[in-house]
Amino acid sequence: MKIAVLSGSPKGDLSVTLQYVRFIQKKLPQHQLKVHHVSHDIQKLEKDGQAFANVIKDIEASDGVLWAFPLYVFLVPSQYKRFIELIWERGAQGAFKNKYTAVLSTSIHFFDHTAHNYMRAICDDLDMKFVDSFSADMDDLFLDEMRNRLLIFAQGLFEAIEKKLPTSKAYSPLTYSKFRYAPGKAKDKVDTRGMKVLVLTDSQDKDSNLARMVKRFQESFAQPIEVVNLYDINIRGGCLGCVQCGFDNICVYEGKDGYIDFFNNKVRHADITIYASTIKDRFMSARMKMSWDRGFFNGHVPAHMGKQMGFIVSGPLSQIPNLRQIMDAWAEMSLGNLAGVVSDECQESAQLDALLQNMATRCIEYSTQVYIRPKTFLGVGGYKLFRDAIWARLRFPFTADYRFYRKHNLFDFPQKDKRYGAFNKQMISMIKNPEMKEMVRKMIKTEMVKGYQKVVDTK
Ligand SMILES: Cc1cc2nc3c(=O)[nH]c(=O)nc-3n(C[C@H](O)[C@H](O)[C@H](O)COP(=O)(O)O)c2cc1C
Q: How many CB atoms neighbour CB 224 within 10 A?
């Protein structure tokens, strides 16, 4: 079998993920895995049509495709996202149609499911025959058991191709609306009350719905707000994954492009940050993703702590719950508050005017009250994963994160929680006595609610 491997790490040959691919190749030498470093080479693939065509030609000549990438900020790296966009922009979808495919990632399992959902949907959109996915922890290769599982996964792909096994789709195609937004005038303008509002947009066409939505949002305020177009910032490239920023948050791009100054001078100081993007395939644009990835020079430190956030989106957002989940997670993991998400799916300009105006009002209200909605599982679970990682295996090289987590008491391990320790000890010893056990069993419901009732009665 000949498999085209689309390698997604900007680190190229030094990729951890690639070692998983190499291991498969070594153990199953009867198959040929041809690696294309599409993330590492993205700038060449963008500029040089022939280089891109060569990758596509190899896919056409292959029996299957293995998507192999590292997790970057809830998804694939921005360079990989850009490669996926190029497939459609250059009309190369035909090369993927009906090809057997599988997805392999390495990560620390932080939102690996959203990246895999994304890739699965991309495979379905490309009309591929999706066989399986394998989300390895980056250190799984050190374990006999996991290496074994990796080979079973790889053999599954080869077998599906050999035996032409049936596959099914998980996602329906997206449908796009032709609605053209004609913004109305903003009447009751919102007083910013001194809050700094920043809109970060990837709009490339001033007549697009997105550009109009951003303008209408801007006009909702009585005072000027700042709108920055990501294409106006000199960004030399995506995150390189070198993690040299880990020690003290200094990025290798420092002094070489405009992103870090933009982040430090604008994003850090905004009370309200709105991300405004057009949906491209199953996510926002690769340019927006690049700005998220480049923000990784801050390590695992939350970017919008105590601040308001929002999204203005053009495209079929309601058909992509995976993206909606990432938006929620992005806000929760940033320790910010998602004040609103507005898309142009409503089909009525007046309604869209009202939604944008309402989001402007909510942003200022929440910002004034410093309101942060409680985290859901996305933020609670995500934080525990980060906490444990920064405490132990990621303490080096992410020493800046470690200092931040210490300073902000984020190492909130359960064994440190004194509230429950003494109580548990006392109750567990009490129920060793069968009579007491029976008595406690009967009292548990009334006793459990007592503390809550006391708060309601006294506060
Ligand atoms: C910029 C950046 C973002 C990352 N984001 C995530 C993430 O969202 N979830 C996760 O589990 N791991 C994340 N990681 C960890 C990588 O996925 C992991 O280290 C991976 O094995 C790197 O593979 P590679 O060497 O092939 O690039 C991130 C790493 C970097 C450098």
A: 9
